[in-house]
Specification:
Helix content: 10-25%
Number of helices: 5
Distance between the termini: 74 Å
Shape: globular
Strand order of the largest sheet: 1-2-3-4
Structural class: alpha+beta
C-alpha cells in the first residue's frame, strides 16, 4: 500500500531537480562566453550602473543577442561596420545564447556588482629617487603628447602627437633636430640612408585609414616621402626581406578600434608596396 506514495514522492523529487538544473548558471555562462574574446571581467570591477547602462548593452550586441542600437551610436564608426561585422572573431551575427541564458548572464553581473566602487587610498608617490636624478630640459612641448621614446647612442628620440613631429635631443637634452610627420609617430626603423617613421594618424581610437609609414632621409634638406599610407592606426613596423629578392619588405601591425591586421608589404623595387595579410585581426 505504500508503493504509490513513494513513487509519487520520487517523481516529484526528480522533477524538482530537473527544474533546478534547467536554470541557467549565469556565472558559468559568463566565464564561457565573455572569456572567449578577452580576459574574464569580475562583476566587482565596475559599479552596477556602469554594467547596466553601458557594458551589458554593448556586450549583448557583440554576442549577437541585442540589436545594434542598444550599444549606442558612438560604439562603432560607420566606416568600420562592414569589415568588423564580417569578421566572426570580432562580432557575432547570430548567437547560440538563448534569451534565458543571456538574462542569467546579465543577472549575474548586476547581482554581484557593487552599488558604488570603494575608494581605496592611493599610495603616496615619491618624486625623488636615490637611483635617479631629475633634470628638466630647456625645451618643452605644450601640451605634452608623447607617443614614442627611443634612446640610442646617448641621444633621445621623441615622437609627439600634438605637434606631429619627431624630435632628436642630444645628451645634454638640447634639441638637435626635428622632422615633420603625421599625427602620433609611434615607431622608428633606421637604415643606412634614413629612418622609417610609423605614425598612427590619430591619437584617439578610430578605424579611419589615416596612418602612414614615412621615409626620412639623413642627408640635409631632403624631403620626406610616404612609403605606405591609408593604414588603420599602425603601431609597429619591421623591415625584412620576406621573399629573398634583395629588397626590404615591411611587416606592419595595424591596431585600430575594431579593425586592423598584421600584414607584410612586398617591395616591388619601384617605390610601391603590395599588402599581403598574415593575420586578419587588430594586432598590437
Amino acid at each position: 500500500m505504500m508503493k504509490f506514495p513513494i513513487i509519487i514522492f520520487f517523481l516529484f523529487f526528480l522533477t524538482s531537480c530537473a527544474n533546478k538544473n534547467n536554470i541557467p548558471d549565469g556565472e558559468a555562462l559568463a566565464k564561457i562566453h565573455c572569456a572567449s574574446c578577452h580576459q574574464f571581467p569580475e562583476p566587482t570591477l565596475l559599479d552596477k550602473t556602469s554594467w547596466e547602462k553601458y557594458i551589458l548593452p554593448r556586450m549583448g550586441f557583440m554576442l549577437g543577442v541585442l540589436p545594434k542600437d542598444s550599444a549606442g551610436n558612438s560604439f562603432i564608426e560607420p566606416i568600420a561596420e562592414k569589415e568588423a561585422f564580417s569578421n566572426p572573431l570580432i562580432f557575432r551575427k547570430e548567437s547560440n545564447l538563448t534569451n534565458d541564458e543571456w538574462k542569467a548572464i546579465k543577472n549575474y553581473f548586476l547581482e554581484n556588482a557593487p552599488e558604488k566602487l570603494a575608494e581605496n587610498p592611493h599610495p603616496i608617490i615619491n618624486k625623488y629617487s636615490n637611483q635617479f636624478e631629475i633634470k628638466y630640459p630647456d625645451y618643452f612641448l605644450s601640451p605634452p603628447s608623447t607617443t614614442f621614446v627611443k634612446i640610442k647612442n646617448g641621444e633621445l628620440y621623441i615622437g609627439d602627437a600634438h605637434t606631429q613631429k619627431l624630435y632628436l635631443f642630444n645628451q645634454a637634452m638640447h634639441l638637435k633636430n626635428e622632422a615633420k610627420t603625421s599625427e602620433a609617430p609611434v615607431w622608428m626603423n633606421e637604415t643606412e640612408e634614413g629612418f622609417l617613421v610609423t605614425s598612427m594618424g590619430s591619437f584617439s581610437p578610430t578605424d579611419a585609414a589615416v596612418g602612414q609609414v614615412v621615409y626620412l632621409q639623413k642627408k640635409q634638406n631632403s624631403q620626406p616621402f610616404i612609403l605606405v599610407d591609408r593604414l588603420k592606426r599602425p603601431v609597429h613596423t619591421e623591415l625584412a626581406d620576406m621573399d629573398n629578392d634583395g629588397r626590404f619588405d615591411l611587416i606592419i601591425s595595424e591596431f585600430a578600434k575594431w579593425t586592423g591586421c598584421l600584414a607584410w608589404w612586398k617591395n616591388d623595387g619601384k617605390g610601391h608596396f603590395e599588402k599581403r595579410i598574415l593575420r586578419n585581426m587588430p594586432t598590437p
